[in-house]
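Please, structure for the following, as tokens.
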Amino acid sequence: MVDIDKHVIQTGATVILALDKLNNLGSDLTLTLFIIDNEQVILGTITDGDIRRGLINGLQTTDVVDKFMNKHFHFLQQNNYDIDKLDELRRLNIQIVPIVDENNRIIRIINLSKKKSILPIDVVIMAGGRGERLRPLTDSIPKPLLHIGEKPIIEYNIDRLYDYGAWNMFITVNYLADQIIDWINSKDKYNGIVNYVKEKKPLGTIGSVSLIRDKFKHNTVLITNSDLLTNINYEEFYRSFIESNADMILATIPYLVNIPYAVIETQDNKVISFKEKPIYNYQSNAGIYLIKKELLDLIPDQNHINATDFMQLLISKGYNVTTFPVFNYWLDIGRYEDYIKAQNDLKNIKF
């Protein structure tokens, strides 16, 4: 995240001070300052180019920044932007953009050249499971905190989602919850970004969302399992959700079934087709979902419910549930052999 103080200057400051602040940004390609008033409200921007043009037009280095200011600047309003606005910023080759609140006060500044995206989503990471199939590794350590290389499994998920612009994330915990809570609190980089919610009892793979429904800020919520290792493109996932007008979309991964014998299809004992050792390709649930926020009201309060049951509920009510095939790397670290595979894959896969 960009240091706000380095990129803001008060209204009424001299352009000499602005030049000094721009110079202190060093080799940063985003040589832009945001001019703010005494209430921290953003008024405009100033760059070295604005200063050059002002001096050419007769302004002096003793003049205030307001005279050089560009009042027609781009920004994103917190919780009120969409993917089209991101596309516009990319077309205009704008690299640095402020996120402002409803009063146009800067909340954060984003360097788009260092972000994969800025998606208007909230995130829930389900981390309450026991991890039975990974015992004895999980007897004393919750599965999300098992290390793959130098980082816990869950840290890969949080960091990737943050790279895609998610900064309102919740981790739901149950088994060995205090270890996960302590780990979150030890990470300064997650301050104000990652929160946790503690289940009083196991609520399944989506039930704990009922505990935080009122804390979401966007209209779309991404829910994911915490024990996945993946480099899924979350922006493509989100675009598919929007373009298909989905109420819920689930990421899927291919699952191949090899039949070692010839398969014969019959009708009334008559052979109508014959396939020699066929391979069937099925789409399996990848444990990552995008859901319209209002539909989360259908999750019963503090009752056990799995994501697959919730999905079936939506289908039965006629909602549009779609799929997004994942062709990137994806691994469910549910068994010991998967855990070992992840350690080896990490050497060759970019996350």
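The longest helix spans residues 153-163. Helices lie at 15-24, 48-56, 83-91, 153-163, 177-186, 234-243, 307-316, 336-345.
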